[in-house]
Amino acid sequence: MMSRYSLHLCAALLSAGTLLTHLPANAETVHTPASSERQEGWTINMKGADILDFIDQIADITGETFVVDPRVKGRVSVVSKTPLELSEVYQLFLSVLATHGFSAITQDGQVRIVPNAQAASEANSGKSAATQMETRLIQVQQGSVQELIPLIRPMVPQYGHLAAVPSANALIISDRSANINRIEELIRQLDQKGSADYSVVNLQHAWVMDAAEMLNNAILRGQAKGSSGTQVIADARTNRLMIFGPPQARAKLVSMAQLMDAPSSRSANTRVIRLRHNDAKALAETLGKISEGLQAASGAEGGGMPQNIMIRADESLNALVLYAQPEVVSTLEEIIRQLDVPRAQVMVEAAIVEVSGDITEAVGVQWAVNSGDVAGGTNFNNTGLSVGTVLSAIKNSVIPPNLPDGAIVGIGNSDFGVLITALSANSNFNLLSTPSLLTLDNQKAEILVGQNVPFQTGTFTTDAAGANNPFTTIERQDVGVKLKVIPHINEGATLRLEIDQEISSLAPVTTAASGASDLITNKRSIKSTVLAEDGQIVVLGGLIQDDITQSESKVPLLGDIPLLGGLFRSTKDVHTKRNLMVFLRPTIIRDANGLAALAGKKYSDIRIMGAEGQDQIPSTLPSQPGQLFDGQNQPAIDLRPQ
Q1: Cβ atoms 94, 69 nearer than 8 A
Q2: 8 Å CB contact between 426 and 358
Q3: Which residues pair with 280 in a beta bridge?
Q4: Fewer Cβ atoms within 10 Å of its own Cβ: the N or the C terminal residue of the chain?
Q5: pLDDT tens by residue, 436-483
Q6: Which has the closest alpha carbon to 247: 202, 189, 188, 193?
Q7: CB 547 within 8 A of CB 575
């Protein structure tokens, strides 16, 4: 080694002798023994040297084995005026690597030189140096690691790593040893808590939950949650406060708590809450079921008898009266506040469209003969009038009752007669009903537009003693358009509708013609549950009916004779066609503006419909719906006699 040092010393002296000569771009490292008797020393000076040559020179000095990553490249400059010891040379080497973004990792007697990004993810073993990469677990005893992360993160370089382990309340840091030591010392200073770091305040008048909420709001005012290190905990069982934090902050909070602990004119056990949107009676039933669970829980925590909870509804004021322990009253009051919110309304519009038509054609020939000992004839009832009815009426010199529609022709004399009936009828029926109603969300609503029709249910003529006191019992039923609906507004603008739609009407046929003993009603009913979007038109159901009825009455054999057979038969054809569809459109109304807009639109529609076809007649409805109730500014009429 001494010959090697002498060689380098000669090179240094030669460089010093030629003062005007500049160093080359990759200057060599100069090693000079400071004192051969005491210890060896090295003075390192280089400018723009390749980093691989620098690593090679350090390997020669320290005797270490270096494994260099291919990504390690660059040029370094080092100026040293004082001789360095061996340990100082190695520390200088690590500092140069750190300056250029590289790290030395010692493993199994070898030193790997890699970029900092890779060194942060690998464990380090072997020599310990301030500039070496290291991964360390730091346990936090008193504070929360989540609160320390924002304070420490700016101190960790980009190539380092910082993570919190909330379950263990610990920090994982990958960085150079010197920086980790600095961070760990800062954490130790922050993570300190004295033996007497809390205060207890017994409250005599104030409710502990309310006081704790006010004190915590005072702590959080103007700062992020938990950053002050002060915390207030309420003990509802003993009605006392526990305050944690620095002495000065605790003293201030204790003073505030004592100021709040003053007698109040308001009882903590009772509340009278007037509702703005909900129904007091219905809400009292809901709270009664909830209070049963609160009552059992309070008794279990107290270890004694369950506490009494009273909830009553005052329907005249739409208010709730609560009586219970302060904590239960606070819980119920919060539940009421969340339930007493305005509900949306739903306008449900239905359209019942029915188009029907009947075509009836009937032709019949009947005859009768009464000559000498011969009497006979043909009699058919399917055309509405039989020849027997006509003969009986002629015999009694009266007009036949219940004459049918159509042509009736009779030809004959006292011995022979022919009755010819013919009918062709065509009827069309169009029905359009658009009932609509407004109701609250989850509230049942019903509308009926029709008549209350009496139906015979029974008759009585004679009692058991033979008294004659006849009477008839009837039952009145609603006939018309009925709409029952229960809307349920789901999340967003989707509605679930429970619908009961019924359309009924009196049949236009007479009782005698139909063969019924009383009135006949036509009924169409739909019961369903559907999903619809706000303003969407949906079809609930419908019916398409096409009935054809053909009847023929004839005399056997004679009625089948071509042409002449028409004198011995009677035919009737009935063709009935009916189309029915029911549509529905729900509209959600969430505020007063939407309700006013809907009312204005409906009023405008009814004014336009009333004015159709009446251009010369002014509308009887005022221009604005408010004038229906406020008058139309017309002068009063004097009804006093003149």
Answers
A1: no
A2: yes
A3: none
A4: C
A5: 889 999 999 998 888 888 888 877 776 666 556 677 788 888 888 888
A6: 193
A7: yes
Q: H or E segment at 186?
A: helix 177-190
Q: Which residues contact 13 (CB under 8 A, 6 or more apart)?
A: none
Q: φ and ψ at 416, to 5 degrees?
A: -150, 140
- Distance of alpha carbon 511 from alpha carbon 592, whole angstroms: 52
The tens digit of pLDDT for each residue in 612-632 reads 555 544 556 777 777 777 765
Please tell me the distance from the alpha carbon of residue 221 to that of residue 209, in angstroms, as a whole number: 18
Q: Give the pLDDT score at 333.
A: 87
Burial class of residue 122, CB neighbours in 10 A (0-12, 13-18, 19+): middle
Query: What is the chain's percent helix, strand, coil content, to nearest 5?
Result: 30, 40, 35
Q: State the Cα torsion 8-12-17-18 to the nearest 10°.
A: 100
Structure confidence at residue 533 (pLDDT): 92
For residue 239, what are its two tokens? 């009605």
Q: Residues with Cβ < 8 Å from 416, sequence gap 6 or more?
A: 367, 368, 369, 370, 371
**Using CA atoms, how far apart are residues 244 and 197, in angstroms rounded to an integer?**
6
Q: Are 492 and 507 in contact (CB under 8 A)?
A: no
pLDDT (average), residues 558-572: 77
Per residue, the 3-state secondary structure of 140-151, as one string, reads CCCCCHHHHHHH
Around Cβ 175, how many Cβ atoms within 10 Å? Answer: 24
Which burial class, exposed, middle or buried, applies to 348 when counting CB atoms under 10 A from its CB (0-12, 13-18, 19+)?
A: buried
Q: Is 67 helix (H, G, I), strand (E, B) or coil?
A: strand
Which residues on adjacent β-strands are paired with residue 426? 359
Q: Tokens 């990792």 correspond to what residue?
A: 105
CA distance linking residue 271 with residue 319, whole number of Å: 10
Calpha distance 136→183 (Å, rounded): 11
361 within 8 A of 572, measured Cβ to Cβ: yes
Alpha-carbon dihedral 623, 628, 630, 632, rounded to 10 degrees: 50
Q: What are phi and psi of 136, to 5 degrees?
A: -135, 145
Long-range contacts of 408-415 (CB under 8 A, 24+ apart): 412/367, 412/368, 414/370, 415/369, 415/370, 415/371
Q: Give the number of other Cβ atoms within 10 Å of residue 392's Cβ.
A: 12
Is the Cβ–Cβ distance between 393 and 403 less than 8 Å? no
Nearest to 89 by CA among 29, 12, 48: 29
Q: Is a pLDDT exceeding 70 seen at residue 227?
A: no
Residue 337's φ and ψ, nearest 5 degrees, are -65, -35
Q: What is the distance between the alpha carbons of residues 553 and 566, in angstroms, rounded to a whole number?
A: 11
CA–CA separation, 55 and 57 (whole Å): 5
How many angstroms separate the CA atoms of 567 and 31, rounded? 147
State the Cα angle at 216 between 210 and 221, rounded to 5°: 125
- Identity of residue 496: R
